Amino acid sequence: MTDPGEGQPDATSVLLPGPWAHRDVSANGVRLHAAEAGEGPLVLLLHGFPQFWWTWRHQLTGLAAAGLRVVAPDLRGYGASDKPPRG
User: Fold this and answer.
1) What is the pLDDT of residues 2-57, one digit of tens each?
2) Is residue 85 helix, strand or coil?
3) What's the Cα-to-Cα distance from 13 to each of 57, 66, 67, rounded to whole Å?
4) How far is C-alpha 12 from the geometric centre of its chain's CA atoms?
5) Closest by CA position to 74, among listed 5, 3, 15
6) Closest CA to 46 of 20, 2, 79
7) What is the rounded distance in angstroms from the CA atom of residue 71 to the CA atom of residue 25?
8) E strand or H helix at 73, and its extent?
9) Around 87, how many Cα atoms within 13 Å sit in the side-chain half-sphere?
């Protein structure tokens, strides 16, 4: 198995264009990816194991069309977010 390099998304990332925007947010030195769409009151969609933001793609568009701001992050270790160090 190869290391994709620090700060680079691996093959499990799905960064496809769509009616959403991809953002990277840093928290305590950890880079987290999120897909977001819409404007209005915030709805935060959190995926389960072993999923990532793509699980919510249909809800992202539907909720945004209903006048909400929707954010679906990749939790640490999933999708395009940083992975914990191995050791």
Assistant:
1) 444 555 556 567 899 999 999 999 999 999 999 999 999 999 999 999 999 999 99
2) coil
3) 14, 27, 27
4) 12
5) 15
6) 79
7) 12
8) strand 69-73
9) 3
The two three-digit tokens of residue 87, written as one number? 């050791």
DSSP letter, residue 2: -
The token pair that represents 38 in the structure block:
């819409």
Positive or negative, the Cα torsion across 28, 17, 6, 82?
Answer: positive
The pair of three-digit structure tokens given for residue 31, joined into one six-digit string:
């880079």
CA 54 – CA 68 distance, rounded (Å): 18
**Total residues found in the chain within this entry:** 87
CA distances from 72 to 19, 36, 53 (A): 13, 6, 5
The DSSP code sequence of 6-63 is TT---TT-----SSSEEEEEEETTEEEEEEEE--SSEEE----TT--GGGGHHHHHHH
> Quick check: pTM over 0.90?
no
Find tokens 């925007």 and name the residue. Answer: 21
